[in-house]
Amino acid sequence: MTTHRPFHHGNLRAVLLDQAERTLREGGVDALSLRELARKAGVSHGAPRSHFVDRQALLDALAERGFDRLADEVEAAIVADVADYKERLRAIATSYVRFAVTDAALLDLMFTAKNGDAPEGLRAASQRLFAAVGDLIDRGIEAGELGHHDAHRLPMLFAAIMQGIASLVGSRRVSPQDGDSLIDDAVSLLVHTQGPGDVGRSRPGEGPRRLAD
């Protein structure tokens, strides 16, 4: 007797995205297909198309979801009841590195998908993340916590440093504990930098500046 798979069940869109994230984490972007997701979700092979018109729509939805999740973590760190600016910056850095290590393939997809003719929802989600990070960095510059960097380049520098740390941890060239120490060192360096070319220099009357406090 033939058993017909249901066309819908529950919140199918969320089920498919959850399964797609697991597949992406385990097998990379090439392992993703609407037909295979339908099979794993236990629905008919045409059911996913009621939510994603094609594979690219699925990838865009995954990228948007990733940006929203990372933006949620960044915004939570910004509004946390922490007075020290360095601790706020460190919380954001830790969230980014943890995300990049756990979901490296998703992060790659996010930054690939946001380029070109991205859907409005994806553009809005990415802009929300960049705006949150940029706002905290702007506050740091205005308050004198950060050196006189180019305000447009500093968020990219921050992301590049955190991505580098995540790459070292993800490839197991350093341990997660050493990764935490590198985050501390990087944040201390950024917060205490006086300006381009002044990394590690002392202010008048100060002794040699260390990388980390």
Give a description of the structure.
- The protein is mainly α and 213 residues long.
- The chain has helices spanning 12-27, 34-41, 55-79, 85-102, 104-113, 120-142, 154-170, 176-192.
- The chain folds into 2 domains: 1-53, Arc Repressor Mutant, subunit A, CATH 1.10.10; 54-213, Tetracycline Repressor, domain 2.
- It contains 8 helices and no strands.
- The chain is elongated and about 55 Å long.
- The N and C termini lie far apart (71 Å).
Please state the average pLDDT score.
82
Name the overall outline.
Answer: elongated
Report the CATH topology name of the largest domain. Answer: Tetracycline Repressor, domain 2
Structural class: mainly alpha
Integer-rounded radius of gyration = 21 Å
User: Helix count?
Assistant: 8
Task: Report the portion of residues in β strands.
Answer: under 5%
**What's the name of the CATH homologous superfamily of the largest domain?**
Tetracycline Repressor, domain 2
CA(first)-CA(last) distance: 71 Å
CATH class of the largest domain: Mainly Alpha
Level of helix content?
55-70%
Number of domains: 2
**Which spans of ≥5 residues are poorly predicted at pLDDT below 50?**
1-7, 194-213
- Main β-sheet, in a few words? none
H/E element string? HHHHHHHH
Number of β-strand runs:
0
Which architecture of the largest domain per CATH? Answer: Orthogonal Bundle
Task: Write a concise keyword list for the protein shown above.
8 helices; mainly alpha; disordered N terminus; 213 residues; 2 domains; Tetracycline Repressor, domain 2; 0% strand
